[in-house]
Amino acid sequence: MMVISEHERFMRQALELARKGIGRTHPNPRVGALVVRDGQIVGTGWHERAGQAHAEVVALREAGEAARHATVYVTLEPCAAHGRTPPCTDALIAAGVSRVVYASRDPNPSMAGGADRLRSKGIEVVEGVLADEADELNRPFFHFIRTGLPWIRAKAAVSLDGKMATHTGHSRWITGVQARRHVHRIRAMSDAIVVGAGTLAIDNPELTVRDAPLCGDPPLRVVLADRVPPFSADYRILSADAPSRMYVLQPQDGVTDWQRAGVEIVNVTDLEQALRHLADDGFLDVLVEGGGRLHASLFKRRLSCELLLYQAPVLIGGIDAPGLWHGPGVSRMEQAPRLDRVERIELGPDQLIRGHIVYPEE
Where do the structural domains in the chain lie, given as residue ranges? Predict the structure, then answer.
């Protein structure tokens, strides 16, 4: 029997394989697998795209006959039901492995039960190895299974006094080059990038990945608006670099100039319906780069899940300068959302404060 440190060593390598799926596998989870025999890795695999072979199957194919009596390390409990591909448990049983070690339990009720099926066939199962790291890697997928909503990362660049722009709306640039490059790395790992109509009109953002290599497909560019905004061919989201979509609350009759320019228009009744539509389309890891009004709407509705606050050592001041949370905010401190799992990352003169948003009990 291997000691737990060896399990962790191999599982860490499986997690590195799983990370290759960031930006590629949506709506599926990111999964990596190893086949180990006599202490040697004889097969590796990771899930590349939805509909393609799962990580365990790829690793077993590479291992071939060496998989018999081997140990398989996989970052997510092997699936036990038919989806787009056959159950991974069937492949593991057919390969004659003697042990399966996995990190995260599968939260999807339609796919779970793999551990029990393997045990019923006499295969030893070890669960929960580096589960926290594996859970974090698939946080968007787990959140979607639980809520039907995407994992929303609220991103903002602010001054020391919490301002996102001057009172005139000028904001280029609050943070420095290193912080902006980091934002592009986050964009590259996202399924979609979202702004509101105000940010579209004021900043005319391109919402593309420029200073980092793409992990997979270009993120979907999304605009949330009360009504279809006036069209201009100068808007940079009309470039061919990535697809664009606009969610509007007030229905628009007929084909608009936006649609003629290639932008998909989707009518919704509220903000949550727009986010559910994104999730149902497989966009689970969503980066929101909007202004204070959009962030406030998401916070009030408890829809934002994680905060990425890039803070620069500069003071802007002004009662009319916009902040992260537009409007009155909370009335009492016990109503204030707080951050958990907080990270602080130095980015040149700036810092990133990052954490999961924890909302108080209602």
Answer: 6-142, 149-358
Q: Is pTM, for the whole model, over 0.85?
A: yes
Residue 2 has pLDDT above 60, yes or no: no
Q: Is the model more confident about 213 or about 238?
A: 238
From CA 77, how far away is CA 75, in angstroms rounded? 7
Looking at 56, 77, 289, 306, which residue is catalytic? 56
Name every residue whose Cβ is closer than 8 Å to that of residue 123 and which is 6 or more positions away in sequence: 92, 93, 97, 98, 99, 100
- 56 carries an active-site annotation: yes
Identity of the residue numbered 145: I
- Between the alpha carbon of residue 49 and those of residues 14, 25, 117, 182, the distances in Å are 17, 4, 25, 25
For residue 74, the SS3 value is strand
Region 149-358: CATH code: 3.40.430.10
User: Under the phi-then-psi rule, with left for phi > 0, alpha for psi from -120 to 50, and beta for the rest, what region is 246?
Assistant: beta
CATH value of 6-142 in 3.20.20.70, 3.40.140.10, 2.50.20.10, 3.40.50.80:
3.40.140.10
Q: Do 6-142 and 149-358 share a fold?
A: no
Mean pLDDT over all residues of the chain? 92
Strand partners, 246: 223, 265
pLDDT at 308 exceeding the cut of 60 = yes
Among all chains, which residue has been given the structure tokens 């320019």?
Answer: 261
**Spatial separation of the C-alpha atoms in residues 187 and 245, rounded to whole Å:** 16
